[in-house]
Each structure stands twice: as C-alpha cells, then as structure tokens.
Amino acid sequence: MPSHFEGSVNLGINGKNKAEIISETKNAEIERLNQFLFRTNLLRVGEKAVWTPLEGGVSSDIWRVDLPARTICVKRALATLKVKADWRAPVERNNYEWEWFQFVYKIFPKIVPQPVAHDAEMQMLAMEFLAPEDFKVWKDQLMKGETNADFAAKVGSFLGEIHAKSAFDQDVAKRFSTDRLFFALRIEPYLLATAEKHPELGQKIKKIAEKTLAAKIALVHGDVSPKNILVGRENPIFLDAETAWFGDPAFDAAFCLNHFLLKSLFRPVSKAGFFDCFKSFRENYLKQVSWETSEEIELRIDQLLPILLLARVDGKSPVEYITDEKIKNRIRLIARKFIINQNFDLSIF
C-alpha cells in the first residue's frame, strides 16, 4: 500500500503504537474498498480480494484488484487533485468517465478497456485490467525518443471517428452536459490560470476560453495525452476519460498535438520523429472531420495549441519532465508569439 500506511513504531492514541494504528487504518480502508466489490456483485461473502495501488494520474486512486476468478482495474475519483496548486474538482466526474467508456466501447470495443461495473454513490468504476507487460504506455516510449508516426496516425484517426460518431447527437449532448466539470478540470486550470500568469495575454486567452466552452459539437475526451494511451496489440487503447464533455473536439486534437511539441523541445535529438507524429496525427484526424470543414476546426486547434503549450509550464498542471528554465523560457517565447500573432507555424520549433 502507499507510503501513508507506513511508519515507525511509537505510542499513539489510547496506548496503541503507531504500527497498530497504521494497520487498523489500512484494514478500514480495505473494508471500504471491498464494499464497492460487494455492491457491484464482483465479490461474495467469504471471498477475498487483493488491492494493489497503481501509479496513475493526479485525479484518481487506481488499483489492480485480484479477485478469485479474474483481475480488474478499479478507479476512485479524488476531490483534491495531486498537484502543487490548490486544484479541486467534483468527484461526480467518475460518472462521466464510466459513460464515456460505455459509449466508445459500443462503437469501438478494441480501443478502450471493457467496462465492468460502476457505483455512482461511491464514485468508483471497474474495468478490464490490461497487463503492463502486454500494453505499454505510449508516453514511456515517446520519452525515450521512440516515435512511431503510424501509431500516431491511428490515435488521430480513432479520435476523429469518436468525434464524428457523436457530432451534434442530442442524446449524447444531454448525457455529457458537463460544462461545470470541464471548466473546473480544463478551462480554469489550463487556460484561465495561464491567463492570470500572463496578464498581457489575458484578454486573448480568455476570449479563446469562452469560445471553447461555448462550442457544443461532439463528445470530447478532454485528456488525450500519451500517458493515457496504451500501445495495444493492434490499436491504441484510450484511458482516463474523467473530463468527458460534449463540447469542442478541437480541444482534444490540440491537447494531444501539444505533447509532441513539448517533447520536441525537451528532447530535440528526436525532434524529427515528434514532428512526424504531429503531422501524421493531425492529417489522419482531419480525414475524419465530417461535421464541419477542416479549415474551421484547424483554426480553433491552432488557437488552442500555443495556449496549451504555455499552460504546461505556467498553468496548474505543468508537465513534470520540463524543469530546465531555458526550455521553459523558450516555450514561453514561442507560445507568446503564436498567441499574439494567431498564426501557428511548426517551423519555429
């Protein structure tokens, strides 16, 4: 279990030593977690489950759970995200992540884990466990400079297809009417927090933020990042849809494209490969755009890109791997240029 269950032995409450208190706390937490399994009929009285914490993102607790008959993955949304900034978000986002998995699994069952169970009251969901020895995290490969433009093309193409299948669908719009959540998880911490750090750009950034939040076009994942994409046997596997929202699909495309730019600046020796991924993702995503013209969505993607680039050094969720101030300042310089001029150009990187 996590380190907060560990400690040295000394006297604590009611004469109990610290180790005993920690053990009781750990057991009480396991009992609470097991309630989810009992409530969703994944565990029966007399059976045991083994909970193993997994490394995850900043917004949820994630476990591998070994049941008597199978292994699953369980997520529980956190009210306070695990970042340095004070960043809180409603836990009901777990409901919408479950709904996003349900929607996509019915259409493209090979690009998401199979949904298993959900408990809205406990804000927990269970899904198929994908073994790390078989499914590699795309970010890990990219961080080593291992780029694959064909894989990036598949990510862009499937993302475009999800957007196309949901575009202007009023039922989907009602199911994912999550403006409040998307504002708390994306608009405020990424766009508006960055605008506050750069008041000279504030008006332009706020205008794009308002435009983005007002768009009601398609089902948006909201966190299409290489850390949330597994390299499957044939296809990419999309994870972590806590920010699911019926809104502007340009946000998803820009959010993912931004990671290729960040990594090209962090690892310039692999820049050509990252640019190939950027171009391949973008080209194949745009091939799926049927709900508007390519020119219209490209304009919004290019407006969001430099803001998101700047947000990953000066927003509430900076990328952890860029710590060199020289790289940060270069990102600030490039982003400022594009935000002011509003004409994105890959050749400046």
Descriptive account of the structure:
Helix 8 (249-266) packs antiparallel against helix 9. The strands form three sheets. Strands 1-2-3-5-4 form a five-stranded antiparallel beta sheet, with helices on both faces. The protein has a three-stranded antiparallel beta sheet with strand order 6-8-9. Strands 7-10 form a two-stranded antiparallel ribbon. The chain contains eleven helices and ten strands. It folds into two domains: 3-91, no CATH class; 133-348, Aminoglycoside phosphotransferase (APH), C-terminal lobe (Aminoglycoside 3'-phosphotransferase, Chain: A, domain 2), CATH 3.90.1200. The protein has helices at residues 18-39, 93-107, 138-143, 149-166, 170-175, 179-197, 202-214, 249-266, 271-287, 294-314, 325-341, and strands at 50-53, 60-66, 71-77, 115-119, 124-128, 136-137, 218-220, 229-231, 236-238, 245-247. By secondary structure, it is of the alpha+beta class. It is globular, with a radius of gyration of 21 Å.
